[in-house]
Amino acid sequence: MRIANLPPPQTSDRAIKMGLSKYGEIKEIQDETWSRAYRYSVANGIRIVVISLIQHITSHVILAGYRTLISYEGQPTTCYGCNGTGHLYQDCPRRRRERNEPNNTKKTSWADVASRREEKGQHRKRGGFDPGN
């Protein structure tokens, strides 16, 4: 399994083991490194965890206070927003939707705004105040 978005210096292997222990037995944790083309081994920020899963893990898990991205072969699709399975964030039923009104695509002019204000009785007298009140 690969874990991304987890700052390596601040996060110990112990914190990863504590956060993932409910999903199975952790056998090994190591840093993924850039290719061997470099002279020295350079960690790329991805942690590799060898685990015997007893249950699937959602794609996003909080580990050591950071929202991490978990990925492994055979992992079910999970939503970024609600961690539910079977849908992605774009189709999440809990996500607030934009109202699909035809007016959203129509350009509005100042004349349109002023006429709507008059219809609602929100127009002002010249000068910005009504001396009759």
Task: Provide structural commentary.
- By secondary structure, the chain is an alpha+beta fold.
- It has a domain at 2-91: Alpha-Beta Plaits.
- It is 14% helix and 26% strand.
- The chain contains 2 helices and 5 strands.
- It has helices at 13-20, 110-119, and strands at residues 2-4, 24-33, 43-53, 60-63, 66-71.
- A 5-stranded antiparallel sheet has the order 2-3-1-5-4, covered by helices on one side.
- Strand 4 and strand 5 (66-71) form a beta hairpin.
- The termini are far apart.
- The model has no long low-confidence stretch (mean pLDDT 79).
Descriptive tags:
single chain; Alpha-Beta Plaits; five-stranded antiparallel β-sheet; 2 helices; elongated
Which secondary structure elements does this structure contain, and how are they paired or packed?
Elements: E1 2-4, H1 13-20, E2 24-33, E3 43-53, E4 60-63, E5 66-71, H2 110-119
Antiparallel strand pairs: 1-3, 1-5, 2-3, 4-5
* The CATH C-level class name of the domain at 2-91: Alpha Beta
Q: Which class of secondary structure composition applies to the elements?
A: alpha+beta
What best-fitting shape do the alpha-carbon axes yield? elongated
- Tell me what the CATH architecture of the domain at 2-91 is: 2-Layer Sandwich
Rg result? 27 Å
Mean pLDDT: 79
In brief, what are we looking at here?
With 133 residues, the chain is an alpha+beta fold.
